[in-house]
Write a structure and sequence with these properties.
The complex is a heterodimer of chains A (409) and B (293).
Chain A: E1 3-7, H1 11-20, E2 24-31, E3 34-39, E4 50-55, E5 58-63, H2 87-90, E6 94-103, E7 106-110, E8 119-124, H3 126-139, H4 147-154, E9 156-161, H5 172-175, E10 187-191, E11 195-200, H6 203-212, H7 222-241, H8 250-253, H9 264-271, H10 277-281, E12 288-293, E13 317-325, E14 335-336, E15 339-340, H11 345-364, H12 374-377, H13 385-405
Parallel strand pairs in A: 2-8, 8-9, 9-10
Antiparallel strand pairs in A: 1-11, 2-3, 4-5, 6-7, 6-13, 10-11, 12-13, 14-15
Helix pairs in contact in A: 9-11
Chain B: E1 22-33, E2 36-43, H1 48-55, E3 62-67, E4 71-76, E5 79-81, E6 84-90, H2 94-100, E7 107-114, E8 127-133, H3 138-149, E9 157-163, H4 172-180, E10 185-190, E11 200-202, H5 205-208, E12 219-224, H6 227-239, E13 247-250, E14 266-267, E15 270-271, H7 272-275, E16 278-280, H8 281-284
Parallel strand pairs in B: 8-9, 8-12, 9-10, 10-11, 12-13
Antiparallel strand pairs in B: 1-2, 1-7, 2-6, 3-4, 3-7, 5-6, 13-16, 14-15
Classes of the chains: A alpha+beta (409), B alpha/beta (293).
């Protein structure tokens, strides 16, 4: 579809075009030492010049001030990812599911007055789009489509960005999900020194481009843009080839089925704090629990605070049910009357890894890992999912090589 | 043509009964034993399709019962009688205790029915073997009631139940009725009993299998109870040359949503609330019995 040049100083026009269509703009910015997403009103707050440095258990931002000697001015999307992804805007950390009120005829249940907002999400990466696709499978394409997720999903416009470098924890090339965004977006940005190449993939994206009425600047004809982009694509491929981590392929991961009783689970458990950070930053994890709130909802309990609007409150409300993110690392996660199915951390780590890399394949047709590397950088003790998967499969993979080549690796 | 979005064009949610409870009123409570009770519930919805929705369940399915402000729990469906829904519940936690304290006339919330039940219609013309142990195997009791009432569709019906002490057996009168009037073979075992009672054997429910009269090549087995018992029963069935593809079992896991969405109840690639709780054994064999799954 249409591909045009968007100079940096036309970014406000893009924001304006989105706003005019009723979209609330969610964009990346630097907050508390990390790149996070929230409502933003101007492209000035984009993380201009910021890059992250990551390694297992470490995430740090660095500002690369525009260096006069440098040919490369500060860019807005030189970073790769922060802790969030798109997940919190669709599968919300807290969601009121229903509310009960007392009427003359007894209890009455109703869904909350939930209205999905039109959101334009700026800065989605290829791995995030792949993760979104997986969450769509879970929340929309199943037997019971989630009404809250589905409503918000219909109201989401995605402005994706192609990655130009890889963080040290990225491994999207091995999962096949990056670094180039190929599907699932409305608009796509390729960042150049003084502007962006912008491409529309959807009808609405195309309409926005028409509205922007972009003209080719004389000093940078499209040919030059294309040339510059080609060079960048090459750089990108080089970067991608340099990704150090490599997740085994889905068919290799299927061999994890033979590793249910591996000693390695106990070794991981020596380190794992069962804090659940990996599941919270993972863009595909979908576990939740339900909390029941009583009291006359005039004094609303903590869990429903986010969705509670006193002016809409009915004094007859007697209870509400709130869905909250949960993690399979929590002790309560597998509790059933009188016992806990997974009392040991080794069992909980095994559940997480096997679900993500093996069981997901049967549930959703592919592994649940999109190679974003968040679980590696945000693990407080630096446990590396890719390393663990490879370690667990080492003997199986060696055997496969031996069978294929007749040589012992 | 695409629609220009403004805040007044927001997409509002459809009403989905599976996510939002339907009110139900407690009409009567039977105290089955200390801490075990049966609720008889009337669906109070103004919408007739809600009543049909709860009346049309498969044996082995469950509903989510919520008591305002306390919580929501999954309970298997015991039956539907005289326009009332029956749930037999053991008081073990906060919610089940609160349900036990409900007075007739009180209202609760109901979502469901959820999950897969026993495929009883597939068993036509076969011997049925029911193996249960422990307290309150309501999903199997409902299926037995149905099978006995439709005895002409099946051949022999064998009912095996194990408990610790003979006093632990619930619905004693039902077992007598199935034995005496239902023309079923009913075998009972108490594992920690010192003195033997009439009709009772000392030991485990699995040992009863050796006494059961059935055709191993034309039978369907339904099991419910502690997993360790079901594993032992599978071994014994194998010894008696019952193919494992004839075995169905009902599992228990942490169900929070009932919809296969919250992730709590996973067993291997399955969401037990949606793909179970009744499973065809070969389906779950690779995972069943492994500690931690």
């Amino acid at each position: 579809m249409r591909k045009q040049y968007l100079p940096k100083d036309s970014l406000p026009a893009l924001y304006e075009a989105l706003r005019k269509r009723g979209y609330k703009i969610i964009a990346p910015h630097v907050h508390d030492g990390a790149i996070v997403f929230s409502e933003q009103h101007s492209p000035d707050t984009l993380p201009w010049g910021w890059q992250e440095e990551t390694e297992p258990g470490r995430y740090q931002l660095q500002h690369t001030e525009r260096d006069n000697k440098s040919e490369n001015p500060a860019r807005a999307f030189a970073w790769n990812n922060g802790p969030q992804g798109i997940k919190p805007w669709l599968f919300k950390p807290k969601q009121e599911m229903w509310r009960a009120e007392e009427t003359e005829n007894g209890l009455r249940f109703r869904q909350p007055d939930y209205a999905a907002e039109p959101i334009a999400f700026i800065g989605a990466r290829a791995c995030d789009l792949a993760a979104l696709n997986l969450q769509d499978k879970h929340f929309i394409q199943g037997h019971y489509p989630d009404p809250f997720y589905s409503a918000q999903r219909q109201q989401l416009l995605l402005v994706a960005v192609n990655c130009q470098r890889s963080a040290s924890t990225c491994f999207c090339t091995s999962t096949g999900d990056g670094p180039e965004a190929l599907f699932g977006y409305d608009l796509l940005l390729d960042e150049l020194d003084e502007g962006f190449l912008i491409e529309a993939k959807s009808e609405v994206g195309d309409e926005i481009l028409v509205e922007l009425a972009l003209e080719l600047p004389l000093e940078l004809p499209l040919d030059a843009c294309e040339q510059s982009l080609l060079e960048q694509a090459e750089q990108q491929l080089q970067q991608a080839a340099q990704q150090q981590r490599k997740m085994p392929s889905d068919s290799e991961l299927r061999l994890l089925q033979n590793k249910l009783d591996d000693q390695r689970w106990h070794e991981i458990a020596e380190k794992c704090l069962a804090c659940g950070n990996c599941t919270l930053v993972c863009p595909t994890c979908f576990c939740s629990k339900q909390e029941s709130n009583s009291e006359k909802l005039g004094e609303v309990s903590l869990a429903s605070v986010q969705t509670f609007h006193p002016e809409q409150s009915d004094n007859n409300d007697v209870a509400s049910q709130v869905r909250v993110w949960d993690s399979c690392f929590s002790e309560q996660h597998s509790h059933i009357a009188g016992k806990n199915i997974r009392p040991e951390i080794s069992q909980r780590y095994r559940q997480w890894l096997l679900h993500k890399l093996l069981m997901w394949q049967e549930q959703f047709g592919r592994s649940g890992c999109v190679g974003c590397g968040r679980c590696i950088s945000w693990c407080p003790v630096g446990i590396d999912l890719v390393e663990e998967a490879n370690l667990l499969l080492r003997s199986e993979l060696d055997q496969a090589v031996e069978q294929a080549t007749g040589e012992r690796p | 043509m695409s629609v220009v979005l403004h805040t007044d064009h927001m997409v509002h949610l459809p009403k989905v009964a599976s996510f939002v409870p339907v009110p139900a009123r407690l009409i009567k409570k039977d105290q089955e034993s200390d801490g075990l009770y049966t609720l008889h519930l009337e669906i109070c919805s103004q919408q007739p399709e809600h009543i049909q929705q709860f009346a049309r369940f498969q044996f082995g399915q469950f509903n989510m019962l919520s008591i305002m402000g306390i919580g929501e729990i999954p309970i298997s469906i015991m039956g539907w009688q005289d326009g009332l829904l029956m749930h037999t519940i053991r008081s073990v936690g906060r919610v089940s205790e609160a349900l036990n304290n409900l007075q007739p006339g009180s209202q609760i919330g109901l979502r469901g029915p959820f999950g897969q039940g026993w495929p009883l219609t597939d068993f036509t013309g076969r011997d049925l073997i029911f193996i249960t142990a422990g307290l309150g195997c309501a999903p199997v009791v409902a299926a037995i009631n149905y099978a006995v009432a439709h005895k002409q569709q099946y051949r022999r019906i064998v009912i095996l139940q194990g408990v610790k002490h003979h006093q632990d057996l619930l619905w004693q009168s039902k077992y007598d009725e199935w034995r005496d009037k239902g023309d079923c073979q009913v075998l009972l075992a108490a594992s920690e009993e010192n003195k033997r009672k009439y009709h009772w054997r000392l030991g485990l429910v699995t040992e009863l299998l050796e006494l059961a009269e059935f055709d191993p090549s034309h039978c369907s087995v339904m099991m419910c109870g502690p997993e360790i018992m079901m594993l032992a029963a599978l071994k014994q069935l194998n010894k008696q040359q019952v193919d494992e593809s004839e075995v169905y079992l009902s599992l228990e896991r942490n169900f929070q949503c009932g919809l296969g969405s919250c992730g709590h109840c996973q067993l291997g690639p399955y969401f037990v609330c949606k793909d179970g709780p009744v499973f065809h054994y070969p389906q779950i064999k690779p995972w069943f019995g492994h500690t931690g799954f």
